[in-house]
Design brief:
Layout lengths: L12 E2 L6 E2 H5 L3 E6 L6 H12 L1 H6 L2 E7 L3 H15 L7 E3 L4 H5 L14 E6 L5 E7 L7 H16 L14 E2 L7 H7 L5 E4 L2 E4 L5
Parallel strand pairs: 3-4, 4-5
Antiparallel strand pairs: 1-2, 3-6, 6-7, 8-10, 9-10
């Protein structure tokens, strides 16, 4: 199954380091970052889960829950969490799905046979409170993810959900944003973008970020 942007994230019930989880119920009305790992007790994954744990205050500010996955059993996850917490000097406050039967991995197309026939690649999904897939990123097993980029994209998604704007390349929270080409009526522009805008080209109109 290939998930595309705008698809409903499949629901599932699976064991985890925190016990049985029914995904949609667990997610509630939060945004979710669901990300997979090739295996427990691996070095890159250990650093990634440590980073995610340290970002909990940033996720909380954005109403985001994190949940990880690998194909190892829950008992192994719980043992691994002890290592993560000790080596990364943090507390892992989110569950790790125990996808031993690979059912969730299959639902989310996390196993890429040309990379590994059994282990999940570094898939990451951002899912909104309506359970829609809003972002997908896939990294190779050898490369750790950039979680600052994950936060940046969530900021952009939440901003553009609330206002009729788009974000330019390398945008960060607080930077100018773009007035979409779909907005052309001068009265609408004046109403929606009271801070005004600059227009180096007719199709490129930059306006200060609206207050979130």
């Amino acid at each position: 199954m290939t998930l595309r942007l705008g698809d409903t994230a499949p629901d599932f019930e699976q064991d985890s380091s925190a016990g049985k989880i029914r995904f949609h119920e667990w997610a509630g009305d939060s945004w979710v970052v669901l990300f997979s790992h090739p295996a427990d007790f691996t070095p890159v994954c250990t650093t990634e889960l440590g980073l995610t744990a340290k970002l909990k205050p940033e996720f909380d500010k954005r109403n985001v829950k994190a949940i990880a996955l690998s194909v190892d059993p829950a008992s192994t996850h719980r043992d691994w969490i002890k290592d993560i917490e000790e080596t990364q000097q943090t507390v892992v406050g989110f569950p790790i799905i125990a996808d031993a039967d690979r059912s969730v991995s299959t639902l989310y197309d996390m196993i890429h046979p040309e990379a590994s026939a059994t282990a999940t690649v570094r898939s990451l999904f951002v899912i909104d409170p309506a359970k829609k897939v809003r972002l997908t990123i896939t990294y190779p097993m050898s490369t750790g993810r950039n979680f600052d980029e994950v936060l940046r994209v969530i900021d952009a998604l939440q901003l553009t959900d609330g206002y009729t704007v788009a974000t330019p390349g390398n945008w960060k929270d607080g930077d100018d944003v773009i007035i979409p080409l779909t907005v052309q009526d001068p009265a609408v522009i004046e109403q929606k973008y009271p801070k005004g805008y600059t227009s180096p080209r007719p199709y490129l109109r930059l306006t200060p970020q609206p207050n979130k």
